Q: What sequence folds into this?
């Protein structure tokens, strides 16, 4: 007789597997009892959170004792696997932990993941989340999923966390695969994968109301109602979030003076639907509509009105799951996404900057164009490369010599920086248990990304991608488990690529293992990187000596300057996982070596005329995470990360010392050599308190020390079938250094907000 361990949505006996018909990724199947070849018996359906959470308040059901309850993850290989058998380092954040920590946003939760760093972009307070070393302006190397749907924006090559239509209250768990995982999820899974898994509507029946208000203009509201009618479950969620953002640098700005214009007002509605079609089939669907406004900071005289952003987004996901047998399951998933970002303003500049000859000169010789505008004719002569460039310079000066008044003329007009992105994705996935010791998950997907922008792309760009993937799990012996993964990708804008992974787990016990992992991954350049037509076009221009209604700024980027190679990484990992049930402790430790090349480290902006893809970076590091419950009422969460980075630039012959130093720092700006998180949660009778401390050194170009303390309190009551509660959150910046840029800080070291809630 084998010993069976029961956990969310599957049943595993050591030495044998049984792939049972699953409700879905959101909820628990009926109670399972495995004897020898595994027989499935009908039982009562359990709440997903209650059944899975080994640290839940009170006693677990008898069949879920600590000795038998083995944690399971879903993301790393697209297979339901016990933590000891996963071919990767994984951090799992459960719903109870989200509540205990009191975070407002998804990026703030990522601070609890070892090696994960959170910063902000240069011109607004959109979060930049990176794993290991990366620039805050390059949010392109993490794959972010919501219930299997990628939210990565291929058009602009980034993840916009504000646009993810998921309320924290609706999240069941977040699984973070820490390491390259392109073998499972393709390009952009370059450094890791963040998989946000939402609660099943049947597990949130009733109504939930939340309100939050505090400093820095925090003003949030949440309303959700879920119901069922037998075979179907439904949920509608409304979520609003508002904040005034940062209020400036302490040394240069008066306290409370929000001159940086980085406030945000975002809201969405999301609908969830799940129906059990029959004993072996289930249909799930999600639809969301989001609107938001972000203020954008202006730091130059070009923009005469603020280039604020208004965003509208629609998402639709449909997933059909079918169990052919207890050993064979498939799903067909399709989703559509449409994001419309409107960003328009009134801009002005000297008319000469819209000169067509200057545009052509910049295209051929950007350095000469900059020197020409500076007026240093002696220096200009030595930079011109041919007669055509000399003729362009003479043509520009000729317009001023004929009419000197032209030199000081200002031209203004309407600037359209809109970006419309669409995505259609269809995926089929098939999971088969071939033998007691062998199972596979394979699939095929087709994706079409469309992006349209007058500023960034000069019109519309389309990229079609075909993916083929397979992951194999083979139990070679009772103590050795092999995992092999492979992804093939063929897309229009880049060459076909493949990403392999091989791992072996040595099972010291059902809850203890040593793993060896080797993986390779690529990150293909996205549309704005590979196929740009990046220029600023003024429409309805004021009177100018060119006599044109439409003018084009001289700085630009176009596809002729591209042909970028995919970024590549090879990663080696030695890891150790252990769960000591008798001590209520779970730990994961890894040491690793990452070798990256062809890195696209240049910023994607007008000032970067020549985008480089020849940066190399080597990272040696170690990470640890610990989850320990010293008593049924207490939970300790601890992480530590060490990074040793070595950046190597390619051809630097055209760069000066300052530019070389800047590029060397670009890839490591949003990282720290040492970082640590320590959090303690205590739960009493209908109340809880959580204290969290964040620490990192050599942050932000190696100049900053980042230290922060948070305290979250919550008290709830039971009143006539309802659960009202109140809460308070306090954040204190121990160090005064800025997060990423010097103005991205608060004028006060203390931030706080209060919360009210009601469940009924």
A:
């Amino acid at each position: 007789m084998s010993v069976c361990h029961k956990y969310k949505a599957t049943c595993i006996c050591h030495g044998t597997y049984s792939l049972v018909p699953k409700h879905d990724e959101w909820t628990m199947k009926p109670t399972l009892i495995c004897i020898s070849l595994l027989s499935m018996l009908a039982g009562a359906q359990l709440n997903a959170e209650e059944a899975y959470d080994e640290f839940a308040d009170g006693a677990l059901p008898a069949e879920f004792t600590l000795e038998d309850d083995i944690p399971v993850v879903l993301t790393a290989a697209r297979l339901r696997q016990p933590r000891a058998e996963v071919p990767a380092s994984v951090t799992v954040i459960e719903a109870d932990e989200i509540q205990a920590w009191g975070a407002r946003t998804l990026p703030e939760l990522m601070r609890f993941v070892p090696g994960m760093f959170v910063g902000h972009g240069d011109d607004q307070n959109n979060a930049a989340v990176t794993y290991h070393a990366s620039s805050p302006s390059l949010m392109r190397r993490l794959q972010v999923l919501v219930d299997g749907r990628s939210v990565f924006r291929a058009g602009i090559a980034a993840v916009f966390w504000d646009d993810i239509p998921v309320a924290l209250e609706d999240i069941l768990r977040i699984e973070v695969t820490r390491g390259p995982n392109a073998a499972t999820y393709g390009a952009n899974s370059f450094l890791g994968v963040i998989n946000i898994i939402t609660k099943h509507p049947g597990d949130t029946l009733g109504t939930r109301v939340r309100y939050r208000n505090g400093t820095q203009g925090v003003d949030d509201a949440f309303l959700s109602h879920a119901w069922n009618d037998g075979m179907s479950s439904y949920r509608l969620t409304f979520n609003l979030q508002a904040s005034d953002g940062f209020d400036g640098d302490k040394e240069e700005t008066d306290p409370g003076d929000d001159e940086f214009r980085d406030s945000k007002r975002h809201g969405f509605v999301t609908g969830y639907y799940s129906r059990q079609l029959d004993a072996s089939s289930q249909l799930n669907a999600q639809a969301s509509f989001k609107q938001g406004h972000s203020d954008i900071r202006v730091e130059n005289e070009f923009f005469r009105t603020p280039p604020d952003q208004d965003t509208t987004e629609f998402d639709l996901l449909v997933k059909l799951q079918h169990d052919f047998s207890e050993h064979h399951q498939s799903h067909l998933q399709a989703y559509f996404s449409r994001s419309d970002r409107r960003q328009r303003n009134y801009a002005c500049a000297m008319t000469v900057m819209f000169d067509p000859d200057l545009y052509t000169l910049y295209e051929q010789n950007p350095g000469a164009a900059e020197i020409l505008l500076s007026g240093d004719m002696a220096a200009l002569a030595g930079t011109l490369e041919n007669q055509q460039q000399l003729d362009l310079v003479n043509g520009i000066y000729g317009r001023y010599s004929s009419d000197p008044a032209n030199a000081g003329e200002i031209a203004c007009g309407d600037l359209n920086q809109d970006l419309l992105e669409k995505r259609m994705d269809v995926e089929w996935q098939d999971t088969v248990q071939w033998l007691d010791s062998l199972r596979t998950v394979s699939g095929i997907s087709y994706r079409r990304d469309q992006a349209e922008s007058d500023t960034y792309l000069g019109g519309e760009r389309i990229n079609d991608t075909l993916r083929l993937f397979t992951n194999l799990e083979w139990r070679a012996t009772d103590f050795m488990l092999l995992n092999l993964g492979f992804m093939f990708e063929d897309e229009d804008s880049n060459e076909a690529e493949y990403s392999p992974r091989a791992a072996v787990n040595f099972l010291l016990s059902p809850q203890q293992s040593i793993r060896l992992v080797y993986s390779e991954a690529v990150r293909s350049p996205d549309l704005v990187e590979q196929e740009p037509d990046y220029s600023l076009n003024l429409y309805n221009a004021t009177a100018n000596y060119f006599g044109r209604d439409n003018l084009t700024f001289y700085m630009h980027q176009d596809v002729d300057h591209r042909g970028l190679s995919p970024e590549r990484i090879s990663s080696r990992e030695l890891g150790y996982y252990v769960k000591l049930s008798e001590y209520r402790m779970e730990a994961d430790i890894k040491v690793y070596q990452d070798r990256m090349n062809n890195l696209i480290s240049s910023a994607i902006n007008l000032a970067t005329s020549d985008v480089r893809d020849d940066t190399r970076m080597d990272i040696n590091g170690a990470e640890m995470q610990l989850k320990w419950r010293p008593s049924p009422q207490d939970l300790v969460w601890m992480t530590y990360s060490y990074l040793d980075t070595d950046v190597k630039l390619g051809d630097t012959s055209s760069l000066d010392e300052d530019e070389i130093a800047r590029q060397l720092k670009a890839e490591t700006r949003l990282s720290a050599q040492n970082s640590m998180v320590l959090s303690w949660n205590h739960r009493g009778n209908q109340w809880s308190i959580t204290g969290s401390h964040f620490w990192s050194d050599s942050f932000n170009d190696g100049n900053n020390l980042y230290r922060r303390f948070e305290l979250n309190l919550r008290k709830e009551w039971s009143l006539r079938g309802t659960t009202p509660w109140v809460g308070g959150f306090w954040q204190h910046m121990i160090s005064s250094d800025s997060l990423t840029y010097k103005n991205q800080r608060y004028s006060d070291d203390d931030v706080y907000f209060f919360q009210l809630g009601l469940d009924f």
Observations:
- Confidence is low (pLDDT under 50) at residues 1-68, 253-258.
- Residues 132 and 488 are 25 Å apart (CA to CA).
